[in-house]
Every structure is written in C-alpha cells, then in structure tokens.
Amino acid sequence: MRVLVADDERLLADMIAEGLRRVSMAVDVCYDGDGALERIAVNRYDVAVLDRDMPGRTGDEVCRSLAGSDAGTRVLMLTAAAGIRDRVEGLGLGADDYLTKPFAFAELVARVQALGRRSAPAVPPVLEQYDMALDVARHTVTRDGRPVNLSPKEFAVLHVLMRANGRVVSAEELLEQAWDEFADPFTNAVRVTVMTLRKKLGQPAIIHTVPRAGYRIGGPE
C-alpha cells in the first residue's frame, strides 16, 4: 500500500510516516499542500493522510482535488478541531475518514489500513492464495498454517503480488507500490527482495519470474 502523509508539523509527519513504514506501507511525506498536490500529480496513492489546517494550500484544497479526480485515493483528514461541525465539513469535502489530534497511533494505522482495503479495486482484509494467507491488519503471513517471518519490505512486496491475484507485476510497479518516491529505478532492490522472499516462503516455489515482464503468484510449476 502506498500512502501520502502531508502535515506542516514536520515532527508529527515524520513520526506518522515512520510508523506506517514499520507495518510495510510505502510512504511519501511532505509538509504543505503544494507539495501534496505535486506528488499526487505524478504518483498514485491508495491513501492520503492530510492535515486539514496546513498553511498556504490547505488540506481542504488537497482533499477537494482528490475527490474531483479519478485517482481512487482514500483520504484520512487530521485536525485539531474536534467539533461535530468541523468533522461534517471535512467529510463534506470528500474525506473518507476523520481523526482529531491528539490521536492514538494504533487507531491511525487501523484507519489507514481500512481505507486501503476500500481503494479501487477493493481487497479483503485477509488475502488467501493456494496454501498462503496474508493478514494486513495483524501483519502476519502463514504458509500451510505455519507462520513466515518477513521484513516490512518483504511483506509489502508479497502484499502487492497477492493483490494482483495471479496477474504479472512488473519490477517498476513493485517499486511504485512498495517503495517510496526516493527509490532508485535502476536499483536491484526488487530482485533481491523477491529472492529473499522466495527463500522464506519455502518450497514448492509460489513466486514465479516471467522473463522480461515481472513476477506473479502461482501454483507450483
């Protein structure tokens, strides 16, 4: 899942991003509405976490822009204003959810995960293919009932592949969805991550390389 975090409180924005990365989300961060709109113009995000009260271009403007587009990005609005009227106004702008500051970080993660499941096309909270199950909320993977211990990046790559439901996923698409905006397009990070993921998932192999195309989840070959 790829997430945009936009908040002019830099420390808070960085803390949110770091916490979301720990649960295998690819996160881009900016500190104003202009930066958010610039990133939205060139990247596709499953979820945007927006501070409503940013100076300059506000979170309201960014939310309105997303709501009027066909990006399919879900919006979680953050604000210090806790009144019902403020929440209603935010939802009226096109926000999908609303969270007041201060908040419990576990709740923010749960809300982002729930919004990600509602992004188009919608995906269930637990993905199951062949003898493998990936639980997004619990951040667990099992194969044939046995737990598989994955790093956050390995989990993210497996999540993208399982969401594709057998479709071939290119290395470029994996970089876009499982890494942030600073990923080097010429890096071998995807190949290395897939290689270690295969080893951890064990035999028979379930991640297959399609020459000159990418990777896919499939039954034993």
* Content of β-strand: 15-25%
Query: Helical percent range?
Result: 25-40%
Biggest beta sheet attributes: 5 strands, parallel
Can you list the strand order of the major beta sheet?
A: 2-1-3-4-5
Would you tell me which CATH topology of the largest domain applies?
Answer: Rossmann fold
Count, helices: 8
Secondary structure elements and pairings:
Blueprint: E1 2-6, H1 10-22, E2 26-30, H2 33-42, E3 47-51, H3 59-67, E4 74-79, H4 84-92, E5 97-100, H5 105-118, E6 126-129, E7 132-135, E8 140-143, E9 146-147, H6 152-163, H7 171-178, H8 189-201, E10 207-210, E11 214-217
Helix pairs in contact: 2-3, 6-8
Describe the structure.
It is a single chain. By secondary structure, the chain is α/β, with parallel strands linked by helices. The protein has two domains: 2-118, Rossmann fold, CATH 3.40.50.2300; 126-217, Arc Repressor Mutant, subunit A (Orthogonal Bundle), CATH 1.10.10. Helices cover 40% and strands 21% of the residues. It is built from eight helices and eleven strands. It has helices spanning 10-22, 33-42, 59-67, 84-92, 105-118, 152-163, 171-178, 189-201, and strands at 2-6, 26-30, 47-51, 74-79, 97-100, 126-129, 132-135, 140-143, 146-147, 207-210, 214-217. Strands 2-1-3-4-5 form a five-stranded parallel sheet, with helices on both faces. Strands 6-7-8-9 form a four-stranded antiparallel sheet, covered by helices on one side. Strand 1, helix 1 and strand 2 form a beta-alpha-beta unit. Helix 6 crosses helix 8 (189-201). The chain is elongated, with a radius of gyration of 18 Å. The mean pLDDT is 87. This is DNA-binding response regulator, OmpR family, contains REC and winged-helix (WHTH) domain. InterPro entries: CheY-like_superfamily (IPR011006), OmpR/PhoB-type_DNA-bd (IPR001867), Sig_transdc_resp-reg_receiver (IPR001789), WalR-like (IPR039420), WH-like_DNA-bd_sf (IPR036388). Residues 124-219 form the OmpR/PhoB-type domain. Keywords: DNA-binding, Phosphoprotein. The modification 4-aspartylphosphate is found at residue 51.
